[in-house]
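Team,

Forwarding the record for the chain on the shared tracking sheet. I've put the sequence and predicted structure together so nobody has to dig through attachments.
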Amino acid sequence: MSMETEAGVFCRNYHTHTQWCNHGTIDAEETICEAISLGMQELGFSEHAPFPDNRFGRMAFSELINYIGQVRLLQKKYAPYIKIFAGLEIEYFEDDLPYYHQLYRDYGVDYLILGQHYFKDQNSGCYVKTKRIEDEKTIAKYFDSLIYAAQSGLFPMIAHPDYCFGCDLVYTHITEQAICKFLSSISSVNTVLEINANGFRKPTFLSKIGERRKYPADLFWKYVKEYGLWGMIGSDCHHRGQLYDLAVRQAFYFAVEKGIMLKDSIHIGARH
């Protein structure tokens, strides 16, 4: 299927990684050239943001200025051909609220997307690794963390909001209630939910409820459709050729099959 078929749906990508994230293998300029060759209109880089204390082993905090500076140079160089944005993918923790505002205000990032790979248990104060969740009550805490993040107004897009389904659990009404609480809470918030193509690049696995993907999760997107919320395709590319590949097309077909309304862009602008 050609890109023209998805025209307006995937002429822009805001979830893009390069070598700066320490697990990507393509550099930023290569990615821009790939985007131009595909006829894309906008490309946003969204490396995993460092925190000042360098938690989680992302790019070092000392590299942040160089990353943004490189994107700005490429933004000017390729301005006649494509719009380039300097973004970051980052987790939300209430204690770090001043830092997110600083990223917009002092570092000049164009946008932040929420990638809640970790969240904080409000009872214990400990970080929880989302893909290591062991019970449904913790899934509910994960979705609560997404609510707090979305209501902060800092994130125009939530990357892989169904990331928690990478854990192997039998889901009951507890999980369904958590999903519905989350979707109901963000219905008036200006954020879009990403259908993450990288989930289609990962192998399926034999779980307690049968063979399935880690994400996108059918259960989650069933409720997104019921609540009438918007989705958006995100490549989450890390390597050459992934900006628009079979996984991206599969994400598009998934959205069509589930009846998800798709946006083609996110709101980029000051949020501090």
